[in-house]
Amino acid sequence: MMQPDPFALARPTTDSEHALAPEAWARRLRWRSRRGLLENDLLLEHFFQYWQDRITVADHDGLARLLDLSDNDLLDLLVGREEPQGDLDRPEVRSVLEKIRARDPAGR
Question: Which member of 6, 15, 31, 54 has the greatest number of CB atoms within 10 A?
Fold first, then answer.
């Protein structure tokens, strides 16, 4: 049986906001998040240190969309210089950005 592509967006489900993504998806997404800019690496590594075991399908999809961006565009979104627009202006992208931008990893 063919395994799902962990880099592809998941099929939406009624509970994708809360359903945990498979562990293999989170590991591969973490590998894919290695970037050319140190600032991106640090922000994404901090996100994964706290959230890796709790990445939902929605988080996976939001982060996968962000990782399609160039390093500079990604950094602008991660640090809040820009807000998601167009196809990126989606709840799952905004949720991931909130988690990454939060000083307290619990999002408080």
Answer: 6
Residue 53 lies in a domain: yes
Domain-embedded: residue 2: no
* pLDDT band at residue 103 using 50, 70 and 90 as cut-offs: low
Look at phi and psi of residue 75 and say left if phi exceeds 0, alpha if psi is from -120 to 50, else beta.
Answer: alpha
Q: pLDDT tens, 64-85?
A: 999 999 999 999 999 999 999 9
The residue whose two tokens read 């099929």 is 11
CATH value at residue 31: 1.10.150.250
d(Cα 43, Cα 46) in Å, to the nearest integer? 5
Does the pTM of the predicted model rise above 0.85?
Answer: no
The answer to whether residue 42 sits within a structural domain is yes
Query: Which residues, other chains included, contact 101 with Cβ-Cβ below 8 Å and sequence gap of 6+?
Result: 78, 79, 80
